[in-house]
Backbone:
């Protein structure tokens, strides 16, 4: 049996009781180590909590490790632990498909992920459009396909959850060229970096998907004891220090309900200015809507 | 302290370890009883599992009960339990706002909800647009605002999660007129009912948001031991018996990735016919896209 188990967001104790019972039944326990991190836990604290040794599965070895995971799961109970919920990444879906092909039983034990816990910022989940990923820009690679997706969401008034890049195990290419495989220190995109990239792309495209004054919510360490929110404009958040990772950002759509705004104002430094920014931003797609009607 | 605790989808043991520890610290425990049900649990089995008495909070009494909850939370630890995750309904958001106003500390302990666990059907979460609610039609009330929202999602190729109505405590009006307050038996919308309503609205509107041949996924008892999926057309699902509640439906958007389709085919009775339906449906919004470009 292969147990696919979501770990939730922060603490070892964020696993469900059913998930913990399953881990304790497993002979081998794998933890995916490339799509996210459990903020208030380490491999060691998890091992202690589960009473099991953990093998970390990295993206670069997931193919060969999948074979190992599946071979083990044919004989014994095996757990594959995923930060957040189980189906956050296509590689996890792929693992389930391969297990099925080999006739291995799969049980999924779900948990919270940023995709639903983001409701903690006060915006209603059913008013979110598609989520988009924002990756670290490099000198030669500045992918901006998120722009069109944000535009699509905002045209119909929906909020957009921006998922920020993490790099937890990047090979150090300088060292690699000398024949040594070493890894760079982990990097987590900050709210400020994300907002700077968004501003850069809008400046280049000038299609008005959003402006520097578009209201957003910075989310720090969602689900942890240091969870915090800041409601401000995109420009303001591009200069905001959101503290320790992990971060996410929500860009508001124009369908902002009074109750949502009331909740958000608690996170705004200048409540009147934030209200004004929301109102101004709501006019941005009015022309589109009139054209449609 | 007010603990807002998500219970997940099905079993008493779907609560997180941290959530359970919090419940055990609480003097009073409330369970919201109007937005969803925990499929494989009863009030009694939860009380036994927690070692605590539970008070069910109903929609009709939530206002007055909120006062009671907040008064208690000023003095002691109080738990407010929510099926799924904490921020599924606006009434829960409202409770947090009122707690804050009264200076009561609030801690949220998240869990899985249909909003993220729906990934178990094989469709990628970041390709979902806004979720829509489908309510029971009555003779005089057949609200169809979901239609425009599905259209918005499908124009940009996104999948739509349809959340099906439940009625767990409807007053029996015939009895009420005789002066007796009694309740009708609980009702849960089935996949077939949902799809029939969708077909009726398309027939009336004829705007082509979807057709009887649009591919969908029926989801039964997500996260429970009897979880099952069926991939078929809207018309087929309007005649499909999805078994015991709770049910949900996903309507596909045209952005279907090969990996998504591969996963879904496992749930199709006729794989070739389902593939053909996906392909045919993808052409539906091609004209729109060409017009845009």
Residues:
């Amino acid at each position: 049996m292969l147990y696919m188990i979501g770990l939730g967001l922060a603490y070892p104790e964020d696993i469900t009781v059913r998930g913990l019972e399953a881990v304790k039944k497993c002979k081998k326990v794998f933890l995916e180590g490339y799509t996210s991190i459990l903020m208030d836990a380490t491999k060691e604290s998890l091992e202690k909590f589960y009473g099991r040794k953990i093998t970390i599965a990295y993206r670069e070895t997931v193919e060969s490790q999948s074979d190992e995971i599946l071979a083990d799961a044919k004989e014994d109970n095996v757990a594959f632990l995923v930060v957040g919920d189980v189906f956050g990444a296509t590689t996890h879906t792929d693992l389930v498909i391969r297990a099925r092909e080999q006739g291995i039983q799969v049980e999924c034990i779900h948990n919270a992920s940023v995709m639903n816990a983001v409701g903690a910022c006060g915006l209603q989940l059913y008013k979110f459009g598609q989520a988009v990923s924002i990756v670290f820009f490099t000198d030669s690679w500045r992918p901006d396909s998120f722009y069109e997706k944000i535009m699509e969401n905002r045209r119909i008034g929906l909020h957009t959850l921006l998922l920020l890049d993490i790099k937890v195990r990047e090979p150090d290419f300088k060292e690699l060229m000398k024949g040594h495989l070493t890894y760079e220190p982990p990097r987590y995109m900050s709210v400020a970096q994300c907002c700077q990239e968004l501003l850069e792309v809008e400046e280049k495209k000038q299609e008005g998907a959003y402006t520097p004054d578009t209201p957003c919510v910075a989310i720090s360490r969602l689900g942890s004891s240091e969870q915090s929110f800041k409601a401000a404009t995109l420009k303001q958040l591009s200069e905001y220090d959101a503290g320790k990772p992990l971060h996410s950002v929500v860009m508001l759509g124009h369908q902002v309900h009074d109750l949502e705004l009331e909740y958000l104002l608690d996170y705004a430094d200048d409540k009147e200015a934030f209200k004004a920014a929301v109102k101004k931003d709501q006019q941005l797609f009015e022309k589109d809507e009139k054209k449609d009607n």
Notes: The mean pLDDT of chain B is 93.
